[in-house]
Amino acid sequence: MSDLSRRRVIGLCLGAAATGVSGLATAATPFFGRTGLPIGIQLYTLGADLKADFDGQLGQLAKMGYRTVEMAGYLGRTPKELRAAFDRAGLGCPSSHVQGRPRGPEPSLADLDRLIGDAHVIGIRHVVLPSFVAPVGAMDADKATPAYWQATVDLLNKTAVTLKAAGLTMGYHNHNAEFAPVGATTPMEILLQGTDPALVQFEMDVGWVVAAGQDPFAFLKAHPGRFRQMHVKDVKATTKPNFVFKQDPAEIGSGIIDWKSLLPAAYAAGVREFYVEQEAPFDRPRIEAAKISVDYLRALVA
Question: Quick check: is 25 in a domain?
Answer without folding.
Answer: no
